[in-house]
Amino acid sequence: MVQPSIRWLRLAVGNLLLVLSVLVFAKAFFPYKPFLQGLAQHADYHDGGETPAPAQFEKIVFMLVDALRSDFVFGEHSGFEYTQSLIRSGVAIPFTAHATSPTITMPKIKALTTGSIPGFLDLILNFAESDTTSTLATQDNWLAQIKQSGKKLIMFGDDTWLKLFPGIFERTDGTVSFFVSDFTEVDNNVTRHVAPELLQPDWDAMILHYLGLDHIGHKTGPRSQHMIPKQHEMDGIVKQVYQAIETEEHLKDTLFVLVGDHGMNDGGGHGGSSSGETSAALVFMSPKLKALESKFNAPAVPKDEFTYYRRIEQSDVAPTLTTLLGLPIPKNNLGLFIQDFLPLWNVKDQVKILNTNGRELSRLISASYSDFDRLLGEGKCNGKTGQLDKLACHWHSAVLSSQPSEQMNLFSAFSSECQDILTSAATNYDTDSMLIAIIIGTISLILFTTVWVVDGVPGSGLYKLLFWALSLSYSGMMIASSYVEEEQQYWYWAASGWGIILLIRELQRGETGAKSLILLLLLRLTRRWNQTGQKHAGASDITNTFLTNNPTILWILVFFSYTDMFFRLKRNLDTKTSVFVGPVMSISPVVVSMLFKLSMAALDTRELIPSYLMDLADGFAAVSVVTQAQLVFSIIFLIGTYIVLVRNSGMSGVKVTPLKKLQPFHDLLTIFIATQSRLTNIPLIWFFNVMLLLLDDMNLDSLLQITLTVITMQHVSFFALGNSNAISSVDLSNAYNGVSGFNVGVVGILTFLSNWAGPVLWTSGGVGLMCSWMGRRKRREKSGGIKKENNNSSSSSSSSSSSEGTLTDTYLKFAELMSTFRAVAMVAVMGACMALRMHLFVWTVFSPKYLFAMVWTGAHHIIVDLVVTAGLHYSGR
User: What UniProt keywords apply to this chain's record, in alphabetical order (predicted)?
Assistant: First the structure.
């Protein structure tokens, strides 16, 4: 038998190694992409002192509307009516700009300004408000080119620009981008600068970054009642800027660009690679563009779901803007000049522009492929069919041609092939470090596996087999992209299978099986509550199809859910000495939380409120929702403090059993999780607690059974609440409850608790199941109705008569089992990412999965499964 001190050491070392492997692999898997230093000069691309093509514009207004999906501007139900009138008149040239994954603000700003394709690591840095390593201070971009030419820039809006471009702006007013509860002030803070700045002649580039539309998407989705009014508001800014360009003399040579950094999916999120997320609106506007004689209909009919007009790459914006402004193309640009604007120049300059774009891209090809310089040096086509040979042949043919039209075609073909090669080139992975990380993770797994070999795990062989079958089959899924995208299906089937096993167990005991049948029915409802994954995302489900169309039924379910929370907490706080403590303490957090959710619905999702509740909702919504949320959290904290310091410490004069000590914490957690969940998911929280009651009544008779239940239901609840392995499924709608301003620590915690609400609840419920199991075991031992298990040498610890020893052994065994599963899963994810690092979907499927696996391991497993569970265990002593 391994001594407890050795077991504690093994548990600590194994999990430290597991976390270390996760971090080492992340550093190797998400490296910074190398880039050329310094700013480009015109002389870099023009031989013999040849002058570049002249500038068409002297100033630029760059208006970025966060999450401006293509249909928001170009579609039939758009609020951008004035913008569409400009498109019809020919002074506005529209495009759909393709945003590569990850569709997150920071990497998309980098793509728009440098013309490069940022690495996936920028997704992580996007959420680090204090990060300075992501700066573009040393990387070429069109803002730096404007600054280098002696001109002035100003910026108002998302402070991500201030982090990316430190010290480049003459005047700024930054706003925090992650405060998604704010639909209005965050944009009003930008708009208040527009009118006075349009009258000022002392700037050459004005950046406006509006956030409200993105916030509406995160909170209430693209079809929200707030969306069209916000589009009208943004269209009003377009009208204000464009009319100033028409009337103000100092703005007559100004190019106005309206652009989205990314789109959004049907749930209002972004970060993934769905067509809605990758399709952003892009419009170039100026009276000068009338000369192009372009003819476009607006609103337009999309070629596919979100492709309106011509589809270009987002990286094409940078070389197009710099050329229109007469500036050198940024060194790390992978984009192509948008040829719709070529007629603004004469034919000779058109050839120069395409030649310059080709030369700039050939520099990057040479930096990546050393043979390319040798092939160019040969000065002729060698007749070979290799990719680089054909590329060099295109260049030689273009240079030697005397026909301008032929030259332009050849330069265009050369640049397009360069772009294809450079954008498809794999990241320079640190495979040695990736292998080391997998080895470290495997060592961690071996340490946890010794629990099974040396200590032994109490329980029948069937449940041991099920544990390893679950762990290994789940790990095997990681090798296929479709399985990763639809992971929820695995857990739904696993939960149903577990329910059938519990049904058979009940029937074998001579019971009716009613509890297992109800459990299976609730599981069926759970899996239909929110459609998730990729294949069926946005399909009909209980939330969108039934509850949204029947708000009365929704609020009945919400009322019963909160009523259940009240009676649970009251029952566990009631004492014989005071008949008022339980009811008073129980009613306050429940009522305040429910009114807070009603107020939030009045502000964000009024369609979910029945008409007869609307006046009540508006009345409570008049009170600051930040204050309401803070009140909920304060009441929960005060009750928790009372439980720890008075009730459970014995100061109240009432003796409380270990299970009674723990149950109020779970009840308070339920109220907190309901507060942090979407309104439509609150009944699902109720169902989870009903399932826990059923499972407790089934008298699970081994820790292994409880652990299998917890692992399975943690994952079922994660997906059932609407999450998936896509970054776009991360829900920020409750990340700012009670927060009056952005605080990365608080918002980070609330974001985690909002998205992992189900797993956290099931971990807490698992502690309750373990306490009930230990209580039954202790009672049976006292009555002589149980014999010590003879399962290797662990039985002495498992059946110790000392309550402290039993508690310690139970927690250790649970922690060891959970760590075993998590190590198996994490090593499998790392192995899949390394093996499939060249896969077509590495950045859209496997990289997001690794990020989610990091959170499952680093946040949920270490903090919740181990640390919080330990605290709950020992608070019940």
Answer: Endoplasmic reticulum, Glycoprotein, GPI-anchor biosynthesis, Membrane, Transferase, Transmembrane, Transmembrane helix
What average pLDDT does the structure give for the chain? 85
Cis peptide before 319 (omega within 30 of 0): no
Give Dmax over CA atoms of the chain in angstroms: 103
- Tell me the CA distances in angstroms from 311 to 98, 180, 338, 414, 741, one per residue in order: 7, 30, 11, 19, 38
* 126-140, 383-397, 765-779: range with highest mean pLDDT: 765-779
Closest CA to 126 of 157, 158, 97, 98: 158
Contact 203, 174 (CB under 8 A): no
- Contact present, 727 and 272 (Cβ < 8 Å): yes
How many CA atoms are closer than 13 Å to the CA of 53, on its beta-carbon side?
A: 29
CA atoms of 443 and 446, how far apart (whole Å): 5
Bigger pLDDT: 433 vs 419: 433
| Residue linked to tokens 């409380």 | 656
Q: Where are the domains of the chain?
A: 4-15+429-875, 60-338, 345-425
Read off the amino acid at residue 53: A
Residues with Cβ within 8 Å of 570's Cβ and at least 6 positions away in sequence, in order, are: 582, 583, 586, 587
- pLDDT of 857 reads 95
What is the separation of C-alpha 507 from the centre of its chain, rounded to a whole number of angstroms?
A: 44
Average pLDDT, integer, range 355-377: 80
Cβ contacts of 854 within 8 Å, gap of 6 or more: 22, 26
Q: How far apart are CA 179 and CA 215, in angstroms?
A: 8
> Strands 92-98 and 310-313, how do they pair?
parallel
CA distance linking residue 852 with residue 874, whole number of Å: 30
- Is the per-residue pLDDT at 544 higher than 90? no
Answer for the pair 759, 860: CB distance below 8 angstroms, yes or no.
yes
Residue 364: per-residue pLDDT: 81
Residue with tokens 């030697």: 400
Burial class for 771, CB neighbours closer than 10 Å (0-12, 13-18, 19+):
buried
Per-residue pLDDT band for 790 (boundaries 50, 70, 90) equals very low
**Is residue 754 within 8 Å of residue 859, measured between CB atoms?**
no
pLDDT of 303: 87
Question: Would you say residue 65 has pLDDT above 70?
Answer: yes
pLDDT given for residue 827 in this prediction? 96
**pLDDT at residue 707, as a whole number:** 94
Q: Which residue has the tokens 């080709």?
A: 358
Q: Which two tokens stand for residue 231?
A: 């589009």
Q: CA-to-CA distance for 328 and 370, rounded, in angstroms?
A: 24
What per-residue string of b and e applies to 363-376 under the rule 16 or more CB within 10 Å gives b?
bbbebebeebeebb
CATH code for the structural domain at 60-338: 3.40.720.10
Question: CA-CA distance, 817 to 797, in Å (whole number)?
Answer: 16
Residue length of the chain:
877
DSSP bridge pairs for 98: 279, 313
**Angle ∠(869,736,557) on CA atoms, nearest 5:** 70
**Token pair for 681:** 């998911």
C-alpha closest to that of 147 among 332, 328, 336, 357: 328
Higher per-residue pLDDT: 835 or 399: 835
Q: In what order do the strands lie in the sheet with 205-210?
A: 171-175, 153-158, 205-210, 59-65, 254-259, 279-285, 92-98, 310-313
Helix (H) or strand (E) holding 827: helix 803-835
Omega into 102 within 30° of 0, i.e. cis? yes
- The 10 Å Cβ neighbour count of residue 64 is 23
Gap between the terminal Cα atoms of the chain: 24
